[in-house]
Every structure is written in structure tokens, then in C-alpha cells.
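General statements about sequence and structure are easier to judge against a single worked case. For one protein, we set the task of working out the C-alpha cells from the amino acid sequence alone. The sequence in question and its C-alpha cells are set out directly beneath this paragraph.
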Amino acid sequence: MASDSTSPSGPPSGVGKVADSALGLLGPDRSLTERVALFAAAASVGPSFEPGLQPRRTLDQAIATGVISAATLSAVTVAQSAIDSVARLITGRRTDTASASARLAFTVGSNVLIGAVAEGVARALPPREDERLRRGMVRVAASRTARVAAMGAGLSAVMGPSDIAFQKDIRHRWLTRIPIALPAGVAVSAFHIHRVHKQAAEVGDKTIANVSIDKSIMIAAGVGAGVIGLQLGERAIAHGAAHLISKAAPNYDVVSNPIGHAAALTMLGGALYAGYEYAVRRVEQGGAAVEPAYESAPTSPLVSGGPESVVPFDTLSREGRRFVNMVLTHDEIEEVMGEPAVADPIRIFVGLDTAAEAEDRVDLIMDELVRTGAFDRKVLCFASPTGSGYINYVMAESLEYMTLGDCAIVTMQYSMLPSSMSLTRTTLAVEQNRDLMHAITGYLRGMDPAKRPRFVVFGESLGALTMQDVWRRRTVEAMDRDFVHSSVYLGTPSATEFAKSWRIHPDKVDPAGKMIEVDNFGQYLDLPDERRAGVRHVLISHFDDPIPKFGTNILLRRPWWLGPPDQRPPGVPKSSKWRPGVSFILTGIDLINAMEVVPGTFGRRGHDYREDIARFVSVAYDVQVTPEQLLSIERALRERELTWAQKRVVTEQVARAREALLREFKNWGVSSGSDLQADAVLRQVLNAPPPGPVIRAEVKETVDPLEPTRTP
């Protein structure tokens, strides 16, 4: 029991080999390292059911439980194997030939000793908000090692004496075949799941309301079976690698087991990485795809890809084509605002495929700004997109309505992947945003101050990070020197260096108090008048949005939002406890559900900020409108979003129907003029009267968009 090479005796007589082998897989034939890992992986299922920031479905729970259990299995396997190898190195492997009782005492004692040392290291490094990643990782690794050592000592103390006693008693030797570690872990999880649901109900945490206890237990059982299968694969690879090391380098036999486990986990990680890279390539292809609803180039000369533009339309990517095609027209602005429009809005977008080098993309944008007369507009907005290149339609249209079209919005793409897959590209994004910022401010510096446009910036999600970190290690005053009048940031990620520095040292980064962070517009209105008057930069971060909270800091120390239950902000579950790995993975699962939106129905939940955007654009960018105009804008924003969403769905389905017709024509041997025939059939079907009453989409306002929601 002291090492990976030591396992209990063979099966008792009278038990079928197949059944006995299956029973042995549950624990009796496993080494101490594997038994500890089985117990820990099974016991980790229970905490995986704790409430999160967002409602969780059964499928979400299955993913969370599987990832947490597999991660626990891997981490504990490596940690316990390392503990065993260190102990054997200290004794010079003399315990390998000792009696069973001596090996048991040594196993318990070495785990207790190493665990105590690891706990001492962890306590010697108390958490700090501004600590380096290396310091935090050492503390967490030491703390987790101490827990693994405690589990190893406990399981050895429970199973070891009975194994020794029953091995001497032939009549009761079969008792050594009873698995203990895995069933004990399952029992711990079952109790924890019941307690989690009970505590959540008592304090009103509803994010796990759709995950029933019965289904939870079934998932836990299924995951347990999966964990065993995963460990069998890891065990086979690890033992094979350890055997090769022992033969090739006998002097390193004492550390062959942890090296073998590390090699096995590296192979599994490599397989996962290969799958991730494949997914990235598939998603990038989708990001460059041409949608039927936006396949035609815009007709306005004031947008990229249009007439006279130096940016080819086919280089704009999916999000770029959407952005330039959805620009408001002169007539649309007048209809909503009830007064004459000043101009047609300007929208400039340069995609990754437009130019290979960042400096070339910056040059193209500057050419577009000058060509369209963007520096002559009332407001010039520099917007940093999300990972895929998306610019929030609500922000863009709100600004265009409120300025009566007298504005220009400019953006530059840095990725065609969702933000979650674009984290490795933020360095490029920040660098090219900084280059464009310097180019714009250089042009503004050469203008007559009286004729300069009001220069504002915007960023949402990863775009908020890539915009704010243009001023990383600098201050809010640096924004003033770059002629930035004001800024709005939605759902700023926790990894944003500028925001982290501002939160930790607000007096140093923002001595004049020009920046604030709020949950909603009502919270902004609750500020004293004199405080609101000095605000120029607004970070909007919902309390239940996981994106401003998800990061390595959850692995290293208890985050502020998981502090004492009575001090947690609204939307954060009060029954959840901070557990480094578990909290990290559950918050990661919350990211999936935080961005679920319904077109035309604006919400204020998770990462959906649409309900407050128009009002923040008005107050932050100082583009005032009447209450009646604001209400008209809010209605128009909802109607336009729903209309465009419907158009995307309809045109996509029509395009698929056309492809299906062409395939059938080809099967029938019809090739000449098949495109025209397919188009004729579709026109005939689409123009035919519906078989029943016409049902028109209706946009219902359940909340007065002018009435702010205040945080209690």
C-alpha cells in the first residue's frame, strides 16, 4: 500500500474471475495513489452541484461534474504519486522490503509529515490581491497537496489494518475484496448533493432549480463510471511509461511512477489540445462565411465596403458585413427622432483579411476616416470589438439616433473567433488598438481645437479589455491626453490589467474620480449629483455576469463576490462556498449561459447589457435627447433587432432550400438553367398566400425602458 507497485493480494477462492476483476477495478486491486484519486474524484461530484451565477441546466451540470471529477482525478493522482515517491527517496527505498505493518506505518506517517509541511508553506503565503501568479500557484499547490496527503493518510489508516488482519485469516480474506474508496466517495457526494439543494432552497438560490436530485444522482453515477474508465486509460499509459523508464534507467525507478502519470496526463492533454485546435479552425471558417442576409455590398459611400471605399467588401468577415449593412439611414433617423437628421452616419470596419499586417490595417482605417470626413462629425467613436469582431448594435444605433446621424464609428478586427477562443490574441488586439489610438490622437492634435470631434471610446467583453489595456500601467489622466472625452465599457473581463489596477489603487490611477463601475443605470442615478457630474468613464458590470469575475484569481484566492454570505451582492448565490478548482469550473460553465439573449427582448441579466445601453450612451457621451425621443429610440432598437434576426433566419433557410433544389435538379439530370429554375420555384412558393391567418411578430414591452431598475 505504500507505493504504486504494491496492491492487495489476489482474488479469494470461489469468486468468478470476471466478477472478481470487475470488483478489483473499484478499489481492491488499486494502489494507494489510485484509491485516493478514486475517492477524491467521486467526492468532488457533490460540490459540483453548488449554485452558480447563472441558471444551470442538466446538461450544463453534467459537463461541470465531468470536468471537475476528471480534473480532480488527474491532480490527485499526480500529487499522491509524488508524495509516495518523495517518501521513498527519503528512506532510500528501504521500506520496499519491510513488513506490511511497517509499510503501513510508513505510508501514514509520510503522508502526515508531507501534508504538515505543505500546509505550513500554504499558511506562510497568505493571499494578496496584487500578488504574482507564481506566488499564488505555490500556495494553492501546497494547500491541495496537504489535502491529498490527509486523504492518503486517512484511507491508509482505515483500509490498511483491515487488509493486514484479514490477509492472515483465510476464512475472512474475502473481506479485503470489498471496495471502500469509491463507494465512500459516492456516499460523500450523495450527502453533499442533498445538502446543497437544501441550503439553496433555504436562502433562495435558484440557479440549480432545474437540476433535480434524482437526475443529479444518475449523473453522479454515470460520471463515476466514466471516471473509472478514464483512470484505467491513464493507468495503462502511466504504467507503460514507468516500465520503460525502469528498463532504460534503473536508477530512476523510484520516480518512474510520477513521471509515468505525468506522461499519461500530457498525452491526454495533447489530445484535448488537438481537438481544441480543430474546433478553432472550424469556428474561424464560420467567422469568414458570407451570410445570405448580408451578401450584398452596402450602397452608402460612408461605410467600409461601399462605393469609393478602399476596404474590399469581401474582406470584412461575417461581423464586418453585418456592421456596415446595418447602418441607419437618414430617413430612419428622422422617423424615430421626430426631427430632421443632420447627416448619414459613418461606419468604418477593417477586417483581419483586409490586410495582413496591423500597421497596414491602421493605415487603411485612417484613409477611410479622412475619406468619409469622420473628423468633421460631432462625435467620433473608437469601438473595440469582441473576439469575433462584433460591435454591439444597440450602442451603434443609439449613438446614430442621438447624434441625428452626425457621428462616425470606427473599429478594427483582431480575431474571427468567439471571445472565449480569442484570449491568446489580446496582445495583438491591444497593440493594434494602441497604434490606431496614436494615429487618431495625432490627427486630432493637428486640428483646430474648436473643430475637433468629441472623441469617445467603447468596448464590450473582450473588446473592453483590449481597449482599456491601451492605457495599461497608466492612468485615467492619460486618456485625457489622448483627447478621449468619455468611454463606456460593458462586462469588462477580470483579466483586464487597467481595470485591475484601478480597482486596487483607485487614488493612484484615477485621482480625480472620473471612472465608476456600476451594475445598472439605476445605481448610476443613485449617485450624488456632484459625483455624477464628474464621471466620464463608466464600467457596467452586472453582479451576476461571470465574465468580469472569471479568471485565474478564482484558483488562487477567495474572490470578493464569494465573501461572507450577508455581504455578497445581489445575484450571487449565498449558499455557495469557495473551492478553488470547483468555483473556477462552475464560473466557467456560467459563461455559456450568461450570453443567452432573445432578439427584440432586452434584458439585464448576466452578460446581456442591452436594456441600459441607450441611457448610458446618452449620459456618458453627452448626447442629450428628450424623454419622448429616448422612449422612441428604445422601441426602435428592439424592433430593428427583431427584424434583422428574422431576416437572417429567413434568408438562411431560403438559401438552404435553394441548395436542396439544385441538388435535386442535378439528380434528375437537369443542369442547364437550373439556377434560374430554382429561383423561380422559390419565388412562386414565397409569393403564395399563406394557408392560414397571417401571424405577425409583435414586440411587447414588459418593462418601461425609461424606468431604471435600482439594485436593492
Summary: The beta strands are 346-350, 379-384, 407-412, 454-460, 484-490, 515-518, 537-540. The first strand starts at residue 346 and ends at 350. The radius of gyration is 31 Å.
